[in-house]
Amino acid sequence: MRAVIVVESCFGATLAAAEEIARGLRDSGMSAAVLAPREATPEAIGRAGLLVLGAPTHNRGLPTPGSRATAVKRGGRAEDPGLREWLTDARLPASARIAAFDTVTGPGWINGSAAKRIARLSRHRGAAIRSFLVEAGDSGALAGGQAGKARAWGAELASDREHRPGESGDAVPE
């Protein structure tokens, strides 16, 4: 099975999580590609059996043009298009399983979740969802132990090859 990870990253932590997820998938025998939204053309994602979508959490949700501009002012970079915009226009493969992840600066409802918004926008209510903690500030680093958790989640996604959207995974609130 082929997996494609489409990721938006401003300071590097979300990309680092995506690379670890890909490593976990590859270690489990799956082919995995990591792409920025601008690289995720219909041809690039069309044959994916698993599509993993990830972004940093900005203002309790997906990055916006305004939050990306703020990230650039703080030394980050901005994806154009970002995942939010890409999801608006993308035609996701009907047969692909969908999983979503985000990076957050802290646990709990206060921080929100880009991954939950990704699952809603991708119209996959049964998408598997994970969050990975990042260091406070603009270091672009995953918090201690998070790289291993991302890799393990990739392996978990690979081992659940027969999963279809809606059968299991974290429920996405309406």
Automatic annotation (TrEMBL):
Residue span, Flavodoxin-like domain: 3-158
Region (Disordered): 56-77, 142-174
Matches recorded under PROSITE patterns: FLAVODOXIN_LIKE
Record-given protein name: Flavodoxin
Amino acid composition bias (Basic and acidic residues), ranges on this chain: 158-167
GO MF assignments: FMN binding
Organism listed in the record: Actinomyces timonensis
Lineage, top ranks: Bacteria, Bacillati, Actinomycetota, Actinomycetes, Actinomycetales
